[in-house]
């Protein structure tokens, strides 16, 4: 008699109520291997299709995202607590990304002529093959599409290992590509837990890996992929500093800071997290910041006026609360929030910590929820030093009326993959996105992103080349 295999399940839990939505059986290893083989076979044909044919299908995917944005927004609200208005915006942003690469992929991947002593030399950008995407729950559609749109337009195929708390979102994304009439197996979802990722990376048909997630997850994937000599792109955590200089327009700064800190209920890698305020501005900044944070509605993500929903899981809420309490124990002052509310759901209130110093979790760690850390500094020079005093380097913003000064600091002084002046840090298909230090490496979006998973190939031809 054979040994029976224990069937593992992936459980979707509504963070607003704590109720189980549905349980899904994990795919066994043999099914995963079959899907990867099917994806490889699909690649052999897909890589030979023209950009116009790929673009036509990608445009259809964009239209489906727009047509069904309400359904996808409700799905995100149910599985990870995203306020429904944010879910609609996320679906639209995915459609934008699809359209952007449908319109620009061919131009981005045009062969580049090089002048040499050969008859003809150029750089080509053929696709690599099956790409594994390991994606997080916080933007369950956008994180996937910002990888998938350029990867598929370049001629690759993709397999997705999504976060285990958003399985319905993962399956819905596969359905979008199927409904858009992409050939079978161009994009597949693998229902598997984190422990199954190593075996997928080991599969010789998987050519590269992209991951958005925690530092620990990034290290594990990079270690395994490096051992297999496979390329990785990692977008990891962030503790984004927003610098409020002595000449900042506080009205603009506070409005932008609050919006950034509470984006996706505070669960965003590029949400503002450390507010580094020059002392001359601190008192007024704190007063205005508290007023606006206090006015925000927290509640059911399906209600139209909810700005902050629950955190995605109870364990994430509990970890955030630990960071708040430990920071207070070490001398931080809580201006607002800081207490777990009674009742069901993984809710955490908008919270402000001030008097934050090095050695506190609010200074040293990523706060993945609606908690703001205010750090007072004496001047611009100290603000820059504190901003860079972090193991993270994803995004940053600078607020100053002297735009030329802000541009200089952003371009040359701040250690981050993207830095905005007098504006909220956001990802944009037209601009490269990624980090440095322990925020990861590689870039997504723009022409840089589509070239991460192609073979940058030199072609040199000797002899007379016909016109």
Q: How is the largest sheet built, in terms of strand order?
A: 12-13-14-11-10-15-16
Individual helix count: 15
CATH superfamily of the largest domain: Aldehyde Dehydrogenase, Chain A, domain 1
Q: What is the helix content?
A: 40-55%
Largest sheet properties: 7 strands, mixed
CATH architecture of the largest domain: 3-Layer(aba) Sandwich
Q: Overview of this structure, please?
A:
- This protein has 467 residues and is an alpha/beta fold.
- Helices cover 40% and strands 18% of the residues.
- The chain has 2 domains: 9-236 and 441-459, Aldehyde Dehydrogenase, Chain A, domain 1 (3-Layer(aba) Sandwich); 240-428, 3-Layer(aba) Sandwich (Aldehyde Dehydrogenase, Chain A, domain 2).
- The strands form 4 sheets. It has a 7-stranded mixed β-sheet with strand order 12-13-14-11-10-15-16, sandwiched between helices.
- The relative contact order is 0.14.
């Amino acid at each position: 008699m054979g040994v029976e295999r224990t069937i593992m399940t992936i459980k979707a839990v509504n963070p607003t109520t704590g109720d189980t939505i549905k349980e899904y059986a994990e795919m066994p290893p043999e099914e995963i291997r079959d899907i990867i083989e099917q994806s490889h076979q699909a690649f052999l044909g897909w890589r030979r299709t023209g950009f116009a044919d790929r673009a036509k299908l990608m445009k259809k995917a964009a239209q489906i995202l727009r047509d069904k944005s309400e359904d996808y927004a409700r799905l995100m609200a149910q599985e990870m607590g995203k306020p429904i208005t944010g879910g609609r915006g996320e679906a639209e942003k995915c459609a934008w990304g699809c359209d952007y690469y449908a319109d620009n992929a061919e131009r981005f991947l045009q062969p580049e002529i090089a002048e040499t002593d050969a008859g003809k030399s150029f750089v080509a950008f053929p696709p690599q093959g099956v790409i594994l995407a390991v994606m997080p729950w916080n933007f369950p559609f956008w994180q996937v599409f910002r990888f998938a749109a350029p990867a598929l337009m370049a001629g690759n195929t993709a397999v997705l290992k999504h976060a285990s708390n958003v399985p319905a979102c993962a399956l819905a994304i596969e359905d979008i590509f199927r409904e858009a009439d992409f050939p079978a197996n161009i994009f597949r979802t693998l229902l598997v837990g984190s422990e199954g990722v190593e075996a997928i990376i080991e599969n010789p048909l998987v050519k590269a890996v992209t991951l958005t997630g925690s530092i620990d997850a990034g290290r594990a994937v990079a270690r395994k992929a490096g051992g297999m000599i496979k390329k990785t792109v990692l977008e990891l955590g962030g503790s984004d500093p927003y610098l409020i200089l002595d000449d900042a327009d506080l009205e603009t700064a506070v409005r932008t800071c609050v919006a950034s800190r509470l984006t996706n209920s505070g669960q965003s890698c590029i949400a503002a997290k450390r507010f580094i305020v020059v002392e001359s501005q601190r008192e007024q900044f704190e007063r205005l910041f508290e007023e606006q944070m206090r006015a925000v509605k927290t509640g059911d993500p399906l209600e139209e006026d909810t700005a902050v929903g629950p955190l995605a899981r109870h364990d994430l809420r509990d970890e955030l609360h630990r960071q708040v309490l430990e920071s207070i124990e070490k001398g931080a002052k809580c201006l607002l929030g800081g207490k777990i509310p009674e009742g069901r759901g993984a809710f955490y209130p908008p919270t402000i910590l001030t008097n934050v110093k090095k050695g506190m979790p609010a200074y040293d760690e990523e706060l993945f929820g609606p908690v703001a850390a205010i750090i007072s500094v004496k001047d611009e020079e100290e603000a820059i030093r504190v901003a860079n005093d972090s193991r993270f380097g994803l995004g940053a913003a600078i607020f100053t009326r002297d735009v030329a000064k802000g541009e200089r600091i952003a371009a040359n002084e701040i250690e981050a993959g993207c830095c905005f002046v007098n504006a909220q840090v956001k990802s944009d298909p037209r601009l490269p996105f990624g980090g440095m230090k322990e925020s990861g490496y590689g870039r997504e979006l723009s022409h840089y992103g589509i070239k991460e998973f192609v073979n940058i190939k030199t072609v040199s031809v000797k002899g007379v080349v016909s016109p």
